[in-house]
Every structure is written in C-alpha cells, then in structure tokens.
Specification:
mainly alpha, 5 helices
C-alpha cells in the first residue's frame, strides 16, 4: 500500500480517497485537456495576431499558446505546417518544441523539419 493515492492521503490535511483522485486525476483533467485542445481550433481562428497571410483565418494567440504549451501559435502552424516548431520568435514560447528537441537528443525522435531559412532569428542556424 505505497501508491500515490496513499501518499497524497497521508500528506494532505483534508480527506483524500480513491474516488476523489479518480475524479480529479482522470475526469476533470481530461475535460480541461479537451477544452485546451479545442480552443486551438476555435479561439486561435478568431482572436489574435496574423503575421502571415493565410486563407483560413488562423491567428497567433499568446493565451492559447500558454495553455497548450505552444500550439496557440496557430497562424505560424498554418503558414508552415511541416515545421516542428510553432513559435518562430524568441517571445513565442513553444514548450512542445522544447520537448521534441529533448526527445531528439535522446534518440527517440528524428527528422524534425526546421523553420524556413527566411524566418531565422539571426542566430546563423535554422530553428529546429
């Protein structure tokens, strides 16, 4: 009886039990994940900046990007859909891309497509 639920129950000041962990750990977290995912294709097509001309109405929305770890840079994604990175500028935080780079260094991911050369940030190397 040395599971995470038991440990949380011992460390918490209130009552924590299995059903409560199931509700928070599965049901509520799943609903929040779905809402974050769906917000990319709804809010990021309605509110935000449009640095690239596309025919689909996609925008770059910093709030959606913050909640979805970088997927809110949706206009960038629609302009260059094959790139592994969605945040093209330094201020556009893209934690999903950071995770992919870590997996690449571990040898678990390969063949990541860089951002096109014309969008480099002056670093002298492509943003992969």
């Amino acid at each position: 009886m040395c599971g995470a639920g038991w440990l949380i129950g011992k460390l918490s000041t209130g009552v924590t039990d299995g059903p409560q962990l199931l509700i928070w750990g599965f049901f509520i977290s799943t609903v929040l994940l779905y809402h974050a995912t769906f917000s990319v294709n709804s809010l990021a097509h309605r509110f935000g900046r449009r640095p690239h001309i596309t025919t689909d109405g996609s925008t770059d929305n910093w709030l959606v990007a913050l909640v979805t770890l970088g997927e809110g840079w949706h206009n960038n994604h629609h302009r260059f859909p094959g790139t592994a990175r969605h945040g093209f500028r330094r201020r556009q935080i893209d934690l999903t891309h950071l995770g992919l780079r870590i997996l690449r260094r571990l040898g678990l991911v390969w063949g990541l497509h860089p951002v096109p050369a014309r969008l480099w940030l002056g670093s002298g190397r492509p943003l992969v």
